Task: structure prediction
Amino acid sequence: TLKGDVNAILDQNRSERQETYDFMKAIKVLMQ
Amino acid sequence: SSDLEDLCSHINTKILTIKKTLQLRNMGQEPSLKSVLCKIGHEMFLANELLNKMEIEVEKQERLKNSLKEMQKCIERDYNEAQHLR
Amino acid sequence: NKLLFQFQKAESDLDYIQHKLEFEIMKNLPDNPSAEENPVILLKELSVMKSRYRMLCAQLKEISIEQRESISCIHATLENTMKMVQALQQHADLELSPLSEEEQTAAQQL
Result:
């Protein structure tokens, strides 16, 4: 169970992190 | 009542640990179950590896949080300049 | 006080049982067992792993809350800045420079 929970958290965090990177890229374009 | 709940969960945790230790004591004595003990040990090694990855993820998220805060400062500076222009 | 004493008695009885069990296990183990063969070590390691997992989850949750606060603040401030810049351009009769394709995409994404 612990392994499953950690894997799920890792997957969720990785995808959220990618979304945030995309968000920051869009912001940088508009800031310029 | 939260203190009482904490107290109950504290006592329950102790009882649970004793139950697990009893299970493991039998495993330790039964040669056939020794392999189960080794499997548990191996699983725990894998779980620890995952926790290490989780620790790295925390560091990455922390760095990302700091970058967002930097970006927030820049954008507030832009806003103040536009405000000043107006 | 009586209740408190009963709880304390229960706790010390449980601790005694736990230590006695662990002592029995260690006594019955072969000489120099490896950590993986020692149930007591496994059990202790398991509870260490669980508290480490809880701590990491709490850290991730706290960081995520702060990130979301920054993101919503950035979003709102940028939107207000862009509106203000467009108003300034109109006010100064400057030609409103159309957003480039890249800027269009970024604006839609936001």
